[in-house]
């Protein structure tokens, strides 16, 4: 950078290895006999000629540019014949002063978030919302929300900045937190309200003055009260449910790679049903960002998650109602590095940018800021010289191009820059430009490799907004570590966890934080990562993200401590309005503490042992309706003794009262057939219509194991010891699945069962040129069942030898499928996979003796046929509870929009089933054994695995997992993994 802050002029140096005549590099390494003296003399002569030509061009260009600058900005002794108006000149000078103030205060504003210099005049949103009706969801019928003052008594306050305050009272009114203390009374609340009026003289709020009769008192009995969660990366309201193409407004794909002028505000859909769902999860503020297809995707918007009667997007804005003196109203800008812009724009024939080199150049072309500075310098000089007639000496208005407005604001310090960057080299590139061009970066988003750059990010005061375990889905995400949050936090980086809704359902944002705590990040820092840290990094840490007096009344009451598995809000308040209010359920007992670490620990993580014993087991979840304790003895990979009367053999591992469950099974996903789901070179591929018509595909032919693949390693280290995977297809028929050992290092030792089940898909996802309608899908399926070809696996399906696994979500299609099988192939053993709408026809499924494989169990309404999704934690019976009450056997698997990348969280996912509200009228109770069954023996039974897989049985191959407690819940860790002769102690996830 030059001393003025502009880029220095760089002199081009001609590469000495470049052949000037033909543009090709001269090869001096081949040993060819070249007359180097003659060649060098000739090149030198040509360089001098070219340099002379270039010099002439540079001199001429410089002279012309200087002349233009003189014409535009040099004070003239006499007024111009066509000058700007006095008002235009005054407007420009005012802009210049604002620019100077912004630049002077940029670093301070970045540090303090732009908090008002005087005491807050209350919550500006609450003042403005008084003119409309705020709505709350109530069984799909909206009713006015109440903003009556509330006194929360006997709370355990998690204040969002690392403190936990027992037996604390919190009062709210007028959209803010009025008073915090102990033993507060209604009179205290009323007096605090009066002081609020008197101190701030808010006459416009006089009509809202309240009395003791207006105050609601809520006894929390020790439940946790926290600030509302802040999600600093979401696409809700610009990608509305149920996922129609017409509502997909996250990326503008019709322009250039840089579109800073675009505004998320102009695409916000205030009727998005996800707003209510997300609020029910305790998220009260979200930063809505454009997608990451463009280098500069446009301007974001921070919103509160509540709706008004006017259905106005403006009224959702965090800055709605703000006036002078209410603090800084920040703008937000989204940039993206790496793969995404390359993938969108780098297509044949060489569209720009194709590579990271092109990405970088796309960031650095702005010039208008220098033109503005020149205008301001000239205008200031004119004002001093000509006073009131200065405008007569200017021919051009203040340059203010709308296209570059947000970029200029970035350099002026009025924008909080959010950058989509995964890799170390991309983040370092942005830090380089940060210094070269003089702007701040609020946070790197996704930032998979940020933990490898932790010290530098801390030094630069750049935050990260990351996932806990959503990873491995593309090259940029491949070096993810579940310990990233811990490493970054300990280095001094301010860490935020975000949803990227709908990649991850923002309703479950707290689950991201809870998983981070499980993997070792400090629990207080973890909770700050979804409250005060993101609040600060969106410039609002002085008004949201913590429980403190005079902060916005964004409050969540939790059914259990928020970092426990399945925690969900019972009450949500936004701007003082009660948006969610559920009946208080009984306070749940604290989870049992983990027992001490297994002994002994192997000197190497993995060993092959001919015989070994696991003793002192508190619970052995062996199979359905059988929970034992005692000892397991394994010899030559086979369980030879099970229970309390076993004679030890080989090494004896003491589990110290821990728990043993069967090895988990990941079924009906891509495990073993893909490593990085978005990189075709690491996958088995996707079947075409021609492949299906030519004959069936068998997953056993595409299976790959070993080779240090991170996905399989993360699976078996999490206790997932068996995979059942089918070929991938975008049509009706996928093929035949295979069951295999995830710990196998060679194919010959991997296969447990070569042909497991025939897999099909019915619905929108299966529409292709062979069956381009749902009706044709049923027609083709009818033919395959009625008259299968002699070599078709459908013969084994019809006879009941192989299960039929049908991925289907719409309950209408489930009913049709059940009827088709009943009339055409009554012996078929049906597994309904996906099954979002299965709860609607639970009785029909039970009558048909079919099983259900929820994939995933925590669904999203992200397509029309998944609109039947029942989300967890809303005071309603869950899908699992309804199915269990009907007598349906249920299994689950975890899958995301990126495939099987979160397989290591399978046991956590099973745990969600035990944490529903249990409000179903039949009195069905879901217990730990149900959770274990859903990922072990229920899968084995449904998919026809009869070799003991998914169970712990005498005389069968050993495949089990030992934990230090639980087995359901966070904070319990795997102590031992046993897969036949292979034994691993204390497996460590990367």
- Which sheet architecture does the biggest sheet show? 9 strands, mixed
Count of β-strands? 40
Shape: globular
Q: Can you tell me the CATH topology of the largest domain? A: TIM Barrel
CATH class of the largest domain: Alpha Beta
Integer-rounded radius of gyration: 32 Å
CATH architecture of the largest domain: Alpha-Beta Barrel
Individual helix count:
25
Percentage of residues in helical conformation:
25-40%
- The total number of structural domains is 4
Strand content: 15-25%
Kindly report the name of the CATH homologous superfamily of the largest domain: Metal-dependent hydrolases
Kindly name the structural category: alpha/beta
Q: Could you list the spans in which at least 5 consecutive residues all have pLDDT below 50?
A: 1-73
Distance between the termini: 41 Å
Domain Amidohydrolase-related: 449-562
Biased composition (Low complexity): 28-38
Transmembrane segments: 50-73
Region (Disordered): 1-38
Would you summarize the structure shown here?
It contains 25 helices and 40 strands. Strand 14 (443-446), helix 11 (454-460) and strand 15 form a beta-alpha-beta unit. The chain crosses the membrane at residues 50-73.
